[in-house]
Structure formats: structure tokens, C-alpha cells
Amino acid sequence: MTIRIRNFTDKDLSNIVRLLNETRRESYEPIPFSKEELSSQIKEWNLEILVAEEEGEIVGSAAYNNGQWGEEIEWLSANEKPNRKFIENLLATEIEKHVKGDTVFTVVDAESPEINEWTRRGFMVEGGLYHMVARLDGLRSLPEVPEGIVIRYLRQEEEKDFVEAMNAGFNRKRLEQGVIQKWKSKCPPFSEEWIHVAELDENIVSVIVSRPDVKYNRFFRGNRGYLGPATTLPQYRGKNLASALTLQAMNFLFEKKMNSVVLYTSEKNTASVTLLRKLGFKIGHHWRFMRKTCLKCQPKLPYRIDENFKG
Is the dihedral of CA 190, 210, 133, 41 positive or negative? Predict the structure, then answer.
């Protein structure tokens, strides 16, 4: 039977939600999408989405975006059918045509057999990501920091300084003006007091953001906090500022009645992983980054593309 690949339209939303929720139900902390949540994510992340149809039925979907982490295949999903792998390969091949640079990546569970499938498509493992978790069961003492450093909350009028410090610490555009209002709308009761900063001579030199883990708490009826993003200006690293702010944020969340906290960090960031382990964090889950150089030859597969598809 012919598989037709075409662009996503708004009328596909319900079927894509169903497909994603079915194919992700065995994943780590599977929080189902609603139509509203997926629609919001599509717009916010500027996702380009393809769907695969067989006899008028949506049997697969793939999404791509060019975001702050690079060009990424956000999802690749197909129904549990005998030709599932064939459908996924069609979608993966077509979605790669959207790549504007030299490479594209995706994220796969570290223990998943899907790693082998991506390897066969020409992707290679390149680092990974840890989801780290810590219990919050009491207040912790902060380490000593250099003289003159003040640990405090962000003031309402300091968003510009906060964004500039964050971007300088990451050495790229990590945040934009208006992000605090966005967090306020998505993560109530978030406010500026959930942002913890280290100040020296009236300059913000280190920062960490704490938030309620809204989706997790809503679906699993939990009481979990989330940390990130966080950074320290290069010239102030190695002075206990990251430790002090992380503990300050953990204490803050504990006082907000949170009983655990999570964050994400790269497996290659050994300094961060070592620090977090000392603070009581453990690895809750591990993903692998799979990256492909798109200048390599790609296989020609026999399938029909919708004549209206703009590849």
C-alpha cells in the first residue's frame, strides 16, 4: 500500500496527539499531551511537522525545529504496524531535507533499541543528557563565598541584568526579555523571588532559576521543583557560587513545601555532575544525543510524496 507523506494541518491535531500519546506511553515519566498543550508547543517551538498517511489514516508523524540547541528531530512516531519501521524511515529521510546546516540531532533513551535504528540511518552517538533528582527533606547550610558576594533574590526591575548575565554565562543568546512573564504565566506561583542571584559590586555574576515542575505535579499529583537555567560568569567560577545558589534554591523550594527537585545537565559537563552528586542529586534518567552529518549520501526510498508537500 502507498504511504503518502504530507505537511501537517490544524485538522490533524487530534490524531497527532493520539499518536504521540500511544507511542510514548512506555517512555520515562510519560505525561500525555492535550490538544491545547501540543498546539502551544508547536507554535512556541516553531515546529515543522510531517504526517504519514495510509489509505486516509494517519499512521506516523515527525517534527523538526531549528532551536537554541541546534537543528533537531523533535519526534519520530509511527503506529504499531508491521510496516512501522518503513514508515519511520520514510519520515526520517524526508524530515532531513529541512536541515539547513551541516548536522541534525535527536534524543533517544540511553537503553533504547531505537539507538540501533538511528545508527542505521547514519546517526552517531555524541554525548548525552542526565535528568538528575534530589530529595528535599530539610534546610541545608550554604558554603562560604568570597567576601563581598551577596546571595539574594532577583528584584522586579532587574530582568535586563538577569538576561544579560545568563547570556554572558552561556556565551550565547540563552534567554530573551519577557521570559520572566512567560514563566509567571506557565508556572504559577512563580515570581522574581524564585530566581536566585549572586551579586558583586551591584553586578549579577551567578544565577539559578527555580520553578515548580508544573506538568509533573499536575499529572502525577506530585510536589516537585525544577532548577534551571543556571550559570556563572566565567571569571567567577570555582568560588562556590554555583553550590551556594543551588543550595539556596533547594532551601527555597523546601520552604515552598516541595519534597524533591529535578534538573537537566549534560553528561559531558563533568564538573556540574560532580557538584550535583555532592549536593545529593542522583541520575534519574539518561538520554543519548544522536547526530548526523547531512552531507552524507542519503538512501533513495520508493514512496510517493504528496504533490502539495513543500520539502
Answer: positive
Per-chain mean pLDDT for the chain = 93
Question: How many domains would you assign to the chain?
Answer: 2
The reply to whether 168 and 212 lie within a common domain is: yes
**Neighbour count for residue 110 (Cβ, 10 Å):** 15
- Rounded Cα gap, residues 107 and 65, in angstroms: 13
Specify the pLDDT at position 1: 65
Q: Can you give the residue range of the structural domain that contains 55?
A: 3-102+294-305
CA 256 vs CA 138, 211, 250: distances in Å: 12, 10, 10
In a domain, residue 289? The reply is: no
Q: List pLDDT tens digits, range 85-138.
A: 999 999 999 999 989 999 999 999 999 999 999 999 999 999 999 999 999 999
DSSP reduced 3-state for 276: helix
What's the pLDDT at 303? 41
Rg (CA), the chain: 22
| For the chain, the helix, strand and coil percentages under 3-state DSSP, each to the nearest 5 | 35, 30, 35
> Residue 290 class from Cβ within 10 Å (0-12 exposed, 13-18 middle, 19+ buried)?
buried
Check which CATH number belongs to the domain holding 38 and give it. 3.40.630.30
Q: Which amino acid is at 200?
A: L
For residue 81, the model assigns a pLDDT of 86
Burial of residue 183 (CB within 10 Å: 0-12, 13-18, 19+) is middle
With bands split at pLDDT 50, 70 and 90, how would you rate the model's confidence at 300?
very low
The grid cell for 113 is: 533499541
